[in-house]
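Form 7-S
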Amino acid sequence: MSEATPTSPEASPAPTPAPSAPRRRRPLLVALPLLVFGGLAGLFLTQLLSGHDPAQIPSALIGQAAPATALPPLAGLRSPDGQPVPGLGGERDGVPRLVNVFASWCAPCREEHPMLLALARDPAVQASGLRIEGLNYKDKPDQALGFLSALGNPYARVGTDERGTAAIDWGVYGVPETFLVGADGRILWKQTGPLSERAIREGLLPALAGAR
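Output:
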């Protein structure tokens, strides 16, 4: 009877490790981007179908007293009769005001400028006593002066806010923005973005009529 030859450890095949199961992504994490996108798309579609103008964003300041803004005038800017156009004095003199935040470097400001000129010349607006004021935001005075000299000046007053601190008081997100301030000094209406015929017709004029 022959003896069995012992098997050496080197000759034994190493056990093959079992393949690890692939990690499964959590279903919520996978679906989250799709849910967010779907929600935003639904919100946009709702606003589109409702006819709501997304530029007419409600402001926390509506119904509140307008900031008492005192700003120096734009140097060199003169009215048609040759008198210097005053700055913003911060006083509340019982006159309704349309405060427009603008800048010469702002392309949408150029887009809305004809609307402001038309308002300044409108007999009905003039009869209402509405005063159009400009708040020149983070602009160089010579460039702002060139902007109004080239395109026309719709403002009865222009205050220069080179550092942008006054605009913060008004809660300005960007330019242009426009605020209707009633004779009692309260903010009645706000337009974010350039003025349009629709915004004037459906927003500004009804708010101005209600203020009377």
